[in-house]
Specification:
Structural class: mainly beta
Number of helices: 1
Oligomer: single chain
Strand order of the largest sheet: 2-3-7-8-10-11-12-13-14
Radius of gyration: 25 Å
Order of helices and strands: EEEEEEEEEHEEEEE
Number of strands: 14
Shape: extended
Strand content: over 45%
Largest sheet: 9 strands, antiparallel
Length: 233
């Protein structure tokens, strides 16, 4: 039998290396408008709309296989347009205390509605366009996103806490892209400097399918911490 060798180490192996590279170029435009009303001194009510974002996209794909030698090449670039869904947003905030209060803060709630089944794909190939748009309408649905947050100010110290929940945009068992977020942080502000620390923890589940359509269930978690420092002159 023939003995094969790794192209990098030179050692005998029955494995190969497969690489993929995708370059993604996109430009888009949209419009956002909103209004905030203050019916009473401690209450703020807001509403906003976000039009669909109209993207012009170019995908460039390269793949190669390395075994006894490396073989690969560029695929033809793909050009298409993508329209994201329309969004409606509503907000409500309670303002606690005033400028003279030693203890003050805010409690807020934000709601977002978006129908992902209304996304549109456009390309020069009308058959591909019709097929993709049919799949979008068949697999996606409207979602609700809820965000809750609060900030407590104790003099120069501010304490913050938040929670967010986004529903699954898929209406079948194709995938589960629902996510939850828990956030927290604090800030210190003086006449000459300020410092903010923020932490966000997100978690959710998803389904990934290999090339052979084997279903792999994933548990997604992410931790993000950020520190901002500033000096005033």
């Amino acid at each position: 039998s023939e003995t094969r060798y790794d192209v990098n180490s030179g050692n005998a192996t029955d494995e190969y290396i497969y690489n993929e590279k995708v370059d993604f170029y996109a430009s888009g435009i949209n419009f956002k408008a909103g209004v905030i009303a203050k019916p009473i001194s401690f209450l703020r009510v807001g509403a906003a709309i976000h039009t669909p974002t109209y993207y012009n996209i170019e995908d460039r794909f390269y793949s190669e296989v390395s075994f006894e030698k490396t073989v690969g090449g560029d695929w033809e670039p793909i050009f298409y347009d993508l329209q994201t869904p329309f969004k409606f947003l509503g907000s409500l905030a309670l303002v606690l205390g005033d400028k003279e209060s030693k203890v003050k803060g805010t409690l807020s709630a934000d709601y977002e509605y978006s129908d992902y089944s209304l996304m549109k794909f456009r390309t020069e190939n009308i058959l591909d366009e019709t097929s993709v748009n049919s799949d979008i309408n068949r697999f996606f649905r409207a979602t609700n996103t809820l965000k809750l947050g609060g900030e407590l100010k104790l003099g120069s110290l501010a304490l913050r806490r938040g929670y967010a929940m986004m529903e699954n945009p898929y209406k079948s068992n194709l995938n589960d892209a629902s996510m939850q977020y828990v956030t927290g942080g604090f800030g210190i502000k003086s006449k000459h400097y300020f410092m903010d620390f923020a932490y966000a923890y997100s978690f959710g589940n998803s389904v990934y399918r290999e090339y052979d359509t084997e279903e792999i269930k994933l548990k997604n978690t992410q931790h993000i911490a950020q520190v901002t420092l500033g000096v005033k002159f």
